[in-house]
TrEMBL record:
It is an enzyme of class 4 (lyase). This is Aspartate 1-decarboxylase. Its EC number is 4.1.1.11. The keyword Lyase applies. It is found in: Cytoplasm. Heterooctamer of four alpha and four beta subunits. Pathway: Cofactor biosynthesis; (R)-pantothenate biosynthesis; beta-alanine from L-aspartate: step 1/1. CDD domains: Asp_decarbox. The gene is panD. Substrate binds at residues 57, 73-75. It catalyses: L-aspartate + H(+) = beta-alanine + CO2. Its main location: cytoplasm. NCBIfam families: panD. It comes from Pseudoxanthomonas daejeonensis. Catalyzes the pyruvoyl-dependent decarboxylation of aspartate to produce beta-alanine.
């Protein structure tokens, strides 16, 4: 049996650009890609915290340290510059590997600079 688990996420990044007439993708600051292990051209899910929109695209590398989070092509219709988004990637794992797997979680400030990382999500309080 294979399970689909959260591999990595960038939590509450700020959309810096939106380019409708560009090939579809999300350009992500290379430092954020490196910190999460998300590879260029890897499928990612984008969840817009601001407006509730959810869609799937693929990651491309933006300049390291640029802070860029740019939604391009059709994805540009789902966001506005300034929106907060969560970008997530998933992996297929066997049951044995899934038992010990921990995701790479990256948290950013308003400029999309890394504030901290983690490998687990805090338990939700009632």
């Amino acid at each position: 049996m294979h399970l689909t688990l959260l591999k990595a996420k960038i939590h509450r990044a700020t959309v810096t650009h939106s380019e409708l007439n560009y090939e579809g993708s999300v350009a992500i600051d290379g430092l954020l890609l490196d910190a999460t292990g998300i590879r260029e051209f890897e499928q990612v899910h984008v969840w817009d915290v601001t407006n509730g929109s959810r869609f799937t695209t693929y990651a491309i590398r933006a300049d390291e340290g640029s802070g860029i989070i740019s939604l391009n092509g059709g994805a540009a219709r789902h966001v506005q510059v300034g929106d907060l988004v969560i970008i997530a990637a998933f992996a297929q794992l066997g049951a044995d590997e899934a038992a010990t797997f921990q995701p790479d979680l990256v948290y950013v400030d308003a400029g999309n600079r890394i504030t901290h990382t983690n490998h687990s999500i805090p338990k939700q309080a009632a």
